[in-house]
Amino acid sequence: MVEDFFAAAYAPTPESFQRCIESIKSISLEAYNWIIQSEPLNWANSYFHGARYNHMTSNFGELFYSWASDAHELPITQMVDVIRGKIMELIYTRRTDSIQWLTRLAPSMEEKLKKETHKVHSLQVLLSAGSTFEVRGDTIEMVDIDHWDCSCKGWQLTGLPCCHAIAVIGCMGRSPYDYCSRYFTTDSYRLTYSESVNPIPSVDVPVPKDSSQLTVTVTPPPTRRPPGRPTTKRYGSQEVVKRQLQCSRCKGHGHNKSTCKEFI
Ligand SMILES: [Zn+2]
Ligand SMILES: [Zn+2]
């Protein structure tokens, strides 16, 4: 059922999405109803309106969370600076790595394009005068070269031309690179990591002695929140923080007013 769910999320067309969730329906009507209510418009490839370049993940913030929990014990200003340092490190490594790249696209995209190109030899393109071509292979697909569109939906979903599109592009004597999303280029990657996040200058700078007169004493806010950082609640974590019962009648713990047996 989990595989069907993943397949539904990745399914390129409403028909294939439907097929996947019908399979789930045959196993569990409850799961099926949950999926319908979860607004597939926001996560299923076949209904999603925007472009997300085939990225599908439920733990987008995982890296950030691990950074934040490393700095968990620190005061907030130092915590922000630790996270800034990690971001800086990430930017630096990605920038230096990409300096070595000689390909037009980032290596992972270059790899994907190569994979699609390998499938082209088994395809047959029916030439046409307009911008729409018919491509025959295991299936028959329509490629609209002007609108970067293939009926298999692969081109639109990934931002890289699918094998059908590459076949047509080849027939026209053009380069598939001219039909890839610009975000996949090595240039774009380098541009993304070209800037730095500078440290906050005042962090760790001791307050000059003579300014002590001006120092305002900051008292804690009048909240009933207990001291210390609140218990971390992370997405996906199974940990449930249980509130300790306290009785309003006798102030004892472990029971409440209605179950109080204390003699007062
Ligand atoms: Zn296609
Ligand atoms: Zn009590």
From TrEMBL:
The keyword Ribonucleoprotein does not apply. It comes from the Eukaryota. Residues 219-229 have a biased composition (Pro residues). Keywords: Metal-binding, Zinc, Zinc-finger. Residues 206-235 are annotated as: Disordered. Residues 141-173 form the SWIM-type domain. SMART domains: ZnF_PMZ. One of its GO terms (molecular function) is zinc ion binding. Signal peptide: none annotated. InterPro entries: Znf_PMZ (IPR006564), Znf_SWIM (IPR007527). The keyword Zinc applies. PANTHER family: F10A16.15 PROTEIN (PTHR31973:SF117), POLYPROTEIN, PUTATIVE-RELATED (PTHR31973). This is SWIM-type domain-containing protein. It comes from Fagus sylvatica (Beechnut).
